[in-house]
Amino acid sequence: MGHLPPAAVVADGAAEPRAVSHSDSHPLWRPAYVAIGSNLNHPRERVLEAFDRLAVLPETQLVLRSHLYHTRPMGPQDQPYYVNAAAGLLTRLSARELLDHLLSTERAMGRDRQARWGPRLIDLDLVWIPGPVIEEPGLTLPHPGVSTRNFVLYPLADIAPTLAIPGHGAVADLLQSAGDDGISFLE
Ligand code: A4P
Ligand code: MG
User: Fold this and answer.
1) pLDDT per residue over 50-97, tens digit each?
2) Ligand 1 test: best mutation among 39, 40, 111, 117, most atoms within 8 Å of CB?
3) Residue from 45, 46, 153, 139 nearest 96 by CA
4) 20 to 30 Å CA-CA from 26: which of 79, 91, 116, 139?
């Protein structure tokens, strides 16, 4: 039998091993999926601006951008078509913290909340963060509209087709059922 080397060799003069400083106080990076929509004030530019703003949120990285889609309004039809997209983030924020940043980004971009499903300069919905289902005042995860809205599912399928959304299913399967009515590829 040959001679086995020692399990670890410490080079002459190497510093004593010391405790690695893990950032134990910081939570793990987790993926987060955000749906973006706009139908006022140059919607394509507003969606691109939203991506830029997501890219500079604290404790968060913008990892994936979907294509942009031109979509017929859900809700009142006397409003312009929307541009919709989706962003894939990695974040160390909690779901609540991230949602608060999304809502303040909407405000910073000049969104003024009006009619339900009415026209909007920017809408940033937190679609899903893999982890627990959340049902709290002001925060529902997954976002309840995700499984039926093709303007959410098309962009989401660009960046996360195999993502499984609890209570709904895999994005690519949901997309099949939702169909392509009223949606066209923009860029
Ligand atoms: N809220 C709770 N959970 C969440 C979450 N996961 N993500 C609360 C985001 N917000 C969440 O949001 C109202 C409140 O929901 C927030 O204050 C937050 O605390 P909102 O976006 O202002 O809601 P809304 O517009 O008044 O009503 P709703 O039903 O949420 O509208 P949606 O679902 O945002 O839909 N047509 C096309 N083609 N494309 C669109 O993007 N969007 C809408 C709005 C209508 N029609 C559309 C589109
Ligand atoms: Mg919203």
Assistant:
1) 999 999 999 999 999 999 999 999 999 999 999 999 999 999 999 999
2) 117
3) 139
4) 139
Q: Which CATH architecture fits 26-185?
A: 2-Layer Sandwich (3.30)
39 phi-psi bin (left φ>0, alpha ψ -120 to 50, beta other): alpha
Q: What residues does each domain of the chain span?
A: 26-185
Q: Which of 117, 136, 110, 140 is nearest to 127 (CA)?
A: 140
Residue 120 annotated among the catalytic residues of the structure: yes
92, 100, 123, 173: which is the annotated catalytic residue? 123
Q: Of 22-31, 66-75, 152-161, which gets the smallest average pLDDT?
A: 22-31
